Known about the structure:
The structure is a homodimer. Chain A is α/β, with parallel strands linked by helices. The first copy, chain A, has helices at 22-29, 33-39, 48-61, 67-74, 92-104, 120-130, 144-153, 176-189, 205-220, 234-247, 260-274, 307-323, and strands at residues 79-85, 109-115, 135-138, 157-160, 170-174, 194-198, 224-228, 254-257, 283-285, 302-304, 331-334, 337-339.
Amino acid sequence: MEKSSVNNNQKVAKPANHRATSYDVARLAGVSQSAVSRCFKAGASVSAKTRAKVMKAADELGYQPNAIARGLITRRSNIVAVITTEFTNLNYPEMMSHLNAKLSEHGVHILLFTVGAASDMRAVLDQIWQYQVDGIIAASQFSDDQIAQCRKRGIPLVFYNRVFSDSSISSVGCDHFEGAKLLVEHLLSRGHKRFAVYSGPNDSAVAQERLQGAVTQLKQAGAHFDVYQGDYTYDSAAASTVEMMSSARELPQAVICANDIMAIGCIDTLRAKFGLRIPEDLSVVGFDGIAASKWQAYDLTTIVQPLERMVEATVSMLMERIEDSSIPAEKRQFGGKLNIGLSA
Amino acid sequence: MEKSSVNNNQKVAKPANHRATSYDVARLAGVSQSAVSRCFKAGASVSAKTRAKVMKAADELGYQPNAIARGLITRRSNIVAVITTEFTNLNYPEMMSHLNAKLSEHGVHILLFTVGAASDMRAVLDQIWQYQVDGIIAASQFSDDQIAQCRKRGIPLVFYNRVFSDSSISSVGCDHFEGAKLLVEHLLSRGHKRFAVYSGPNDSAVAQERLQGAVTQLKQAGAHFDVYQGDYTYDSAAASTVEMMSSARELPQAVICANDIMAIGCIDTLRAKFGLRIPEDLSVVGFDGIAASKWQAYDLTTIVQPLERMVEATVSMLMERIEDSSIPAEKRQFGGKLNIGLSA
DNA sequence: CTGAAAGCGCTTACAG
DNA sequence: CTGAAAGCGCTTACAG
């Protein structure tokens, strides 16, 4: 207050370091604060003369509208929560990059959350409510109660590569069931008759779909197969391989893995521990199409998920529901592309 | 206004779906709005009785304080911008998970930006200013001008694994120079005398440090070596390997790669295209300690970056500077751990 | 410990 | 096209 005596025809001297506000710009440009606001709103009616004055002043002060204040009044934060798990192995940086690019087209930003244990989800959701996000993209599991909370709060939610039977839930995914069938068909066409199937974790619906797709097709063909429990990791596949090699009376001709990482673990173990050649002695196939699947050491036959298409669909589905919350749920499933490598 | 006649002892009937505000809670609990606010502020003085009433009401209404409104008045968004590039290959999901965990301890959230081309940076920074982030963690390159802008706006900035000679810039990194020297020392101790060095991209200061570390140590030992230009990618290493094998009069005994991905590309190519054995015919070493470096097919001798320590340091350095902007810049460099695998 | 009031930096009818 | 004014949902002196 004492400082105001220095320049008594202004409210109070702003500290030098203060971020410029629309009032500062208005004063410098000699217009009202509302005029400044309009200049930063697309499609608002402002005369060219006013706009020029305002833009000049804004530039001078390094003014940028405060998105936080804007969000408070428009009730649109232009922020979307993205929830992933630590164990997402599907070309994570690439996916994030696409996600960022697609959301940017809508002027939307990503508030990122990584959940480990299921117990974290509660805390994460609390944070999400507090930040008034416009929507949620979840690449993690939700409980029914958590989904209900989103609905009650009117926050659109789209799942990425998660499977829910409930038809009122929106999700984008790859057709894991069909993908697995495609792989099996391919192996059958190569004359394979005895199979091993390395499953993913039991609590992953995606892993179960892949398993069912493979099993269904194998049974239909009357092929012989054994299932080995895994959990998507390299080590689990290595362990299953040791178990398989020591217990099987007759070697399988092909191993169908729940994902690429497991296929890699299987191949490495077959080669290093048992001196087998891939694909001469045994075929191995994966699922996902991660970068390493193309490395010459593996050159996996696998199902490549159409990452960019899936991300694009996720974003457009979410944005539609942010614009109009009455749009009913939708499930979109993309067929994966069978990539025939040298591993089978 | 017409609607107020319906229930004239309240302001206006809130729409059913409206998110509860502190006023709603206050009304239901029969206290003032300030009292509600205090109940959600740690360390504020509220009687147990008032707190109980408020919490009960808040629970009933599903009330959570609006972090956006809070940020507006406290000038603390509790949001930090994290800028990465599409090509970060260093255990990205793991790093993000640690980052998220460490920042959560401070009640801080991540606004994620992925930059591709340098041209994107301008747009990204504009967005960052608008969102009033409390600080920036950058795993991407900044121009001098961009760094100056952060400083002018008083936004703390910490670089992650980027090298700047300017001592007024805070950064956390791995000691790439020493790491590369360690690798060379190890190879020399195994009796190697002729080397190939696969460099990373020229515009990466980190890659240059690794290169200089290796070259310095090789020169000091009087060893013979050739440098092949690469760009951190698998394909660039594969190409360099073909070039090396067709041009070198005498095969090198060891290949020093700028990162693990290149070491893998090199090994795959030596094996697949030239039928060589690793390490019997040739040693190959990498840098980073990515997950794939431990796969049996490679079992790389490499420098493992202490991811968690580095993330922890980044977060604590940033938080310190958010609390007190007068703290001078700091550079922290962690020694990498030499992991001796079977590739050398 | 508690409540009334001002204000954070915007947007948006409203009247001119 | 333009400006004065109200209000988004909070926090925080201030007075009691």
